[in-house]
Amino acid sequence: MKNIVIAAGYATRLGELTRNFPKPLLKIGNNTILGRMLDDIDTIDAIDEHIIITNHRFAEIFEQWSREVHYTKPVTIVDDWTETNETRLGAVCDLLFAMEKLSIDDDLLVVAADNLLFFSFQEFVDFAREKQTSCIMCHEQPSIEKLQRTGVIVVDENMRVLNMEEKPQVPKSHWAVPPFYIYQKKDLELVRHSVENGCGKDAPGNLAHYMVEHTTMHAWPMTAGRFDIGSLDTYYEAVEKYGKN
C-alpha cells in the first residue's frame, strides 16, 4: 500500500506564513504538521512508501525536508510543476498525476496534509482489510452549519455508503467526511478515469463522491478527534494546544 499525501495547495488563507513555505511543514512544537501524521503512518506494516505530491514552488523545500527525516519507508516527492494558486491542478488531478508519473498500481491510502489526528491510521487500514472495499472516514458532526461546508454521507447498518453529497444545504445525516481515503487496487481504473468521466478536480472529496456512485465503499467512524488547520487562527491555536506535547 502506498501512502499518498496531497500537499500541492498554496494555503492562501495563512497569508505570509505560507507565501513561500508549505503549510504541511509548519512546526507544531518540535515536529511538523506532516511529520506528526507520518510518524503514525510509517508504523503500518502494509505501507511501503510515502509519496508526497506538491507544487513546483515548494518542491525543493519538501526535498530538503525529506533528506532530513528518517522514516522506515522511503519518501518520494512528486512535483506537479504548478507555480500559482490560480494554475493549481486540484487535489484529484494531483493524485492522478502522481499515479501516472510513478506507475502506481497498488492499494492507496490518500491523506490531506493539514490535520492533527488523535487516532492511528492502522485502525482505518484494518477496517478496509476487513471490508475488502475502498473506504472513507467519517465522524458525527452535530452542527448543521459545519455539515453544509463538507461532504456528508448516508450509510446502512454495516457502514456501507449509500449516498454522499458535497456541502449539502439540507444534510441527510450527521456523518461528515474528513479528507482521508483508502482506494483498493481493484478500483484504480475507476480512479484513473474519474476526471474524464465528470469527477470534480479541486477537493479530494470530489473523488470520494464519484467513487461512491461507481463502486462499493464503506465508511470507518473515527475513534478519536482531529484538528483541522485551515487558517492562521487555527494554526496558532494548534501551536498553543499541542505544541508542548
Detailed description of the structure:
The chain is of the alpha/beta class and 245 residues long. 30% of the residues lie in helices and 25% in strands. It contains eight helices and 14 strands. The chain has helices at residues 33-41, 56-68, 91-101, 121-131, 144-147, 188-192, 204-212, 232-242; strands at residues 2-7, 27-28, 31-32, 49-54, 75-79, 108-112, 115-117, 134-140, 151-155, 161-166, 175-177, 180-183, 217-221, 226-228. The strands form three sheets. Strands 1, 4, 5, 6, 8, 9, 10, 11, 12 and 13 form a ten-stranded mixed sheet that branches. The longest helix is centred in the N-terminal third of the chain and has 13 residues, at 56-68. It is globular, with a radius of gyration of 17 Å. The mean pLDDT is 96.
